[in-house]
């Protein structure tokens, strides 16, 4: 099996995997970074969202071979102490219900606010549209993105 | 006022205390059963067992309180609200309370189940008693040391004071308290003195969730664990005939390919089967891989041949049989008041309508999965299951093992919605590990999770009302459903006792498609049907919709009928509140409102949906929701559940469809099965009825009514009555806008 060097959360990891292995499973099963969740495997739910060079991407759609040389950030590396403004807002609003989708929601929101720190309500709704929350915590997600945006600006 | 239904907690020896070897005091208690008198509490924390107690409170010599609870968390917030209740009566600051998901061995650990919004309702009284008893013991210990009467002492945030102004912290007296007699009679606080209950408290797992720590079954790992993917028949009615695994075996990540099914079949045929769902008798092909991806990739490389064992059913077949049942003579009467035949015979007008809903998968965002390690010594099972005790029992019988050898551990669950009441995935995991003699984790792909599920059954209702001299005289509801029918209490919901001649009949068709409980079973669609019907009825009777409901509830109040489940007063209460808060009838131009009022799962709810039309498409912009759930333990958690229930209800009523073609489910992932997304969600505005009545659950009751609120609003906007879900599939575009 080929080996790949991956730069994840500012650390380099060497993994052995089939070229076509989705980055999501490499993170979860090979590297034990299980904060990135499996929800659909086809790019529809956003539970597996990570940052590749600062852009929110679906790690279930990225093959491990494509991720070499890129800066990969997972929920575990979003901040050192769980205190990224988006994480803080999620805690302040108490967004999670079952919580399973929330790492993906946070990663989507963090990348979005990084590019657009003062979004309008409809921009927030558009940005978060790709992330399913089966528990439908959507009202709180919207509010938390607004709170995070305030804290950023 | 008619009392709300509650289970009364009978005083009994449900609690024990002792000193811990490591210092501090431990109290074990059982929420559901009396403890046996010979039961001893462990003196070492590593030995806490949950056979006789189902939770423990530890008070350290520093006065810190730790609650050990193995209660499963599926998103209902019970892991937060249960300790809140204990902390309230124990009189400690919430900040000094730490909740630990108990070491999870659940040997003989019964009654641990999160379903039916029951956890809070059943635990309320026992949790309060536990907190109050522990407090009393600490106070008694302090009083003994001071040589004063316990009644002279007061407690604030874990500090005991006497009338002389001396103080002792809980930590100072734990060792003495631990060996005192457990007091029989303790006084509970007056709800108006609550300091923690009624305050919003965040999810206790929040830090782990937002930083991606392992919490869920899918995150669980053990030394030497392999991954298992299971190939189940693609169609209901098919079984495995043969397969070719050569393509899978050559893959480097594939460790083994096996079949399972024999044990399950033997158990099924033995007649002692212990599960509440029907299960396929087919053999299944299992690919064991080094990683989840290896197993899933291997599964795709299996060439399987399937043969037909029983009929391959399609949605058209279901439609036909259900319509036939509604008009046939196999209906069974579930409740009958007065004389419905006479009322309809004498009527000068009859309103009759049919309402239809499809099957629905649960689609928990965390797909079904379970860890199993079957060794000669023990059977170790870990994962997200709502019914660990029954999983333990079935696995012990399936593998012919002593029940004592089977240990089930629960993880946090990525959603439940009823799906994880069924243990099929636990049995599969156990059978696989038993066959390969290795620790494995069975992981379902999304496609398998969705296409081999336990569905909300497709259902049709026919509702008829008889009208004489402009008055409602009779109400007749018929239910036709796949596999099962509404449970026994539902016929006693509204409008039972509100209409003189009243009858509920039901019939079902036995299908090979697996069906089961789905968030708010039966009422999840029944409420839509009934509350849409009342909207039409008010129009036909030319009575204001709110007036009609208030009058009917008034009749129920005056009807001394003991066998009704709801409280007419409390339904009137939420109706009045929603009318006031939603600005009912006074909206801006272009905004249309629909109303729905419903009781289920012991909670009374009224909802008003505000919609606008955008390019002919309805857009729900706001839902006002009035809730009577008794005392609100944790408003933050309650809000989350109420809003989630409303939005989930809108999503499934509007968008989610699930049909079958020759036994094959017609959606297998979120590209074809629509779940509600953020852009489709309204703001949910929640109002509680202030109450001192014991709390009732919130996981389910706000979901059922919202479908009708939306449908009734769409009618006002378009003049079109929607009676078939999902509504968006059944809105003919050309009819959408009246102008
Ligand atoms: S798992 Fe990647 S989008 Fe759903
Ligand atoms: S919180 Fe459960 S899926 Fe979002």
From TrEMBL, chain A:
InterPro entries: 2Fe-2S-bd, 2Fe-2S-bd_dom_sf, 2Fe-2S_ferredoxin-like_sf, 2Fe-2S_ferredoxin-type, 2Fe2S_fd_BS, Beta-grasp_dom_sf, Diverse_Oxidoreductases. CDD domains: fer2 (cd00207). Gene3D superfamilies: 3.10.20.30, [2Fe-2S]-binding domain (1.10.150.120). Residues 2-78 form the 2Fe-2S ferredoxin-type domain. It comes from the Bacteria. One of its GO terms (molecular function) is oxidoreductase activity. The keyword Metal-binding applies. Keywords: 2Fe-2S, Iron, Iron-sulfur, Metal-binding, Oxidoreductase. PANTHER family: BLR6218 PROTEIN, OXIDOREDUCTASE WITH IRON-SULFUR SUBUNIT. This is (2Fe-2S)-binding protein. It comes from Algibacter mikhailovii.
Automatic annotation (TrEMBL), chain B:
It comes from the Bacteria. Residues 1-21 form the signal peptide. GO terms for molecular function: oxidoreductase activity. Keywords: Signal. Residues 211-310 form the Aldehyde oxidase/xanthine dehydrogenase a/b hammerhead domain. SMART domains: Ald_Xan_dh_C. PANTHER family: ALDEHYDE DEHYDROGENASE, BLL3820 PROTEIN. This is Isoquinoline 1-oxidoreductase subunit beta. The lineage of its organism: Bacteria, Pseudomonadati, Bacteroidota, Flavobacteriia, Flavobacteriales.
């Amino acid at each position: 099996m080929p080996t790949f060097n991956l730069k994840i959360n500012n650390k380099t990891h060497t993994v052995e995997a089939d070229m076509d292995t989705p980055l999501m499973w490499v993170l979860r099963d090979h590297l034990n970074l299980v904060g990135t969740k499996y929800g659909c495997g086809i790019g529809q739910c956003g539970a597996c969202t990570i940052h590749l060079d600062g852009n929110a991407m679906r790690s279930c759609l990225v093959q491990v071979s494509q991720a070499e040389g890129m800066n990969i950030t997972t929920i575990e590396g979003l901040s050192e102490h769980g205190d990224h403004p988006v994480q803080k807002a999620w805690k302040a609003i108490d967004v999670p219900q079952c919580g399973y989708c929330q790492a993906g929601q946070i990663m989507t929101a963090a990348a979005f606010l990084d590019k657009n720190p003062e979004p309008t309500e409809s921009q927030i709704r558009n940005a978060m549209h790709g992330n399913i929350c089966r528990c439908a915590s959507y009202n709180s997600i919207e509010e938390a993105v607004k709170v995070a945006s305030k804290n950023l600006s | 006022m008619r009392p709300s239904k509650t289970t009364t907690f009978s005083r009994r020896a449900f609690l024990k205390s002792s000193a811990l070897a490591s210092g501090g005091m431990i109290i074990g208690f059982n929420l559901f059963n009396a403890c046996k008198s010979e039961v001893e509490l462990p003196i070492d924390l590593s030995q806490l067992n949950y056979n006789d107690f189902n939770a423990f409170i530890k008070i350290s010599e520093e006065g810190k309180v730790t609650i050990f609870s193995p209660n499963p968390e599926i998103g209902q917030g019970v892991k937060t609200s249960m300790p809140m209740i204990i902390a309230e009566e124990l009189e400690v600051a919430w900040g000094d309370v730490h909740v630990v998901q108990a070491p999870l061995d659940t040997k003989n650990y019964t009654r641990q189940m999160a379903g039916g919004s029951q956890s809070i309702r059943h635990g309320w009284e026992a949790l309060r008693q536990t907190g109050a008893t522990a407090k009393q013991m600490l106070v008694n210990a302090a009083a003994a040391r001071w040589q004063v009467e316990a009644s002279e002492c007061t407690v604030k945030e874990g500090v005991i004071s006497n009338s002389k102004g001396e103080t002792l912290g809980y930590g100072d007296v734990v060792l003495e308290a631990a060996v005192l007699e457990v007091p029989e009679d303790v006084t509970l606080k007056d709800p108006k003195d609550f300091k923690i209950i009624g305050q919003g408290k965040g999810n206790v797992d929040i830090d782990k969730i937002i930083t991606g720590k392992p919490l869920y079954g899918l995150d669980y790992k053990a030394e030497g664990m392999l991954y298992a993917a299971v190939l189940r028949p693609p169609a209901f009615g098919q079984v495995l005939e043969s397969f070719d695994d050569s393509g899978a075996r050559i893959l480097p990540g594939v460790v083994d390919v096996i079949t399972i099914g024999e044990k399950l079949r033997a158990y099924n045929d033995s007649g002692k089967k212990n599960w509440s769902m029907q299960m396929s008798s087919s053999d299944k092909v299992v690919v064991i891989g080094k990683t989840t991806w290896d197993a899933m990739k291997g599964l795709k490389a299996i060439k399987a041949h399937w043969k037909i064992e029983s009929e391959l059913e399609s949605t058209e077949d279901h439609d036909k049989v259900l319509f036939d049942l509604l008009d046939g003579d196999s209906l069974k009467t579930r409740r009958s008041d007065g004389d419905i035949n006479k009322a309809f015979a004498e009527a000068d007008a009859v309103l009759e309508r049919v309402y239809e809903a499809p099957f629905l998968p649960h689609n928990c965002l965390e797909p079904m999965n379970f860890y199993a390690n079957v060794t000669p010594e023990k059977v170790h099972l870990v994962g997200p299951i709502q019914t660990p005790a029954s999983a333990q029992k079935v696995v012990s019988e399936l593998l012919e093992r002593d029940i004592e050898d089977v240990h089930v551990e629960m993880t946090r669950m990525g959603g439940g919605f009823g799906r994880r009441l069924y243990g099929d995935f636990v049995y599969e995991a156990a059978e696989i590990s038993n066959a390969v003699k290795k620790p494995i984790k069975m992981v379902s792909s999304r496609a398998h999770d969705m296409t081999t599920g336990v569905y909300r059954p497709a259902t049709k209702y026919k509702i008829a009302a008889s009208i004489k001299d402009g008055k409602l005289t009779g109400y007749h509801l018929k239910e036709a459903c796949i596999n099962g029918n509404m449970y026994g209490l539902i016929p006693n919901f509204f409008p039972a006792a509100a209409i003189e001649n009243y009858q509920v009949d039901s019939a079902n068709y036995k299908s090979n498609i697996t069906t089961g409980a789905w968030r708010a079973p039966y009422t999840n669609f029944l409420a839509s049907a009934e509350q849409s019907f009342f909207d039409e009825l008010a129009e036909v009777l030319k009575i204001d919709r709110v007036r009609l409901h208030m009058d009917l509830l008034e009749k129920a109040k005056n009807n001394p009928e003991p066998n009704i489940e709801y409280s007419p007063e409390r339904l009137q209460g939420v109706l009045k509140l929603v009318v006031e808060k939603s600005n009912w009838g006074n909206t801006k131009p272009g905004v249309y409102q629909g109303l729905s009022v419903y009781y289920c799962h012991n909670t009374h709810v009224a909802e008003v949906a505000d919609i606008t039309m955008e390019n002919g498409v309805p857009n729900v912009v706001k839902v006002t929701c009035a809730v009577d759930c008794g005392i609100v333990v944790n408003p933050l958690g309650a809000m989350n559940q109420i809003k989630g229930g409303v939005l989930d209800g809108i999503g499934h009523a509007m968008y989610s469809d699930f049909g079958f073609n020759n036994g094959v489910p017609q959606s297998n992932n979120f590209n074809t099965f629509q779940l509600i997304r953020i852009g489709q969600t309204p703001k949910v505005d929640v109002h509680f009825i202030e109450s001192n009545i014991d709390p009732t659950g919130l996981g389910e009751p706000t979901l059922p009514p919202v479908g009708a609120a939306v449908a009734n609003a769409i009618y006002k906007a378009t003049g079109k009555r929607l009676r078939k879900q999902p509504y968006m599939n059944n809105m003919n575009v050309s009819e959408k806008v009246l102008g």
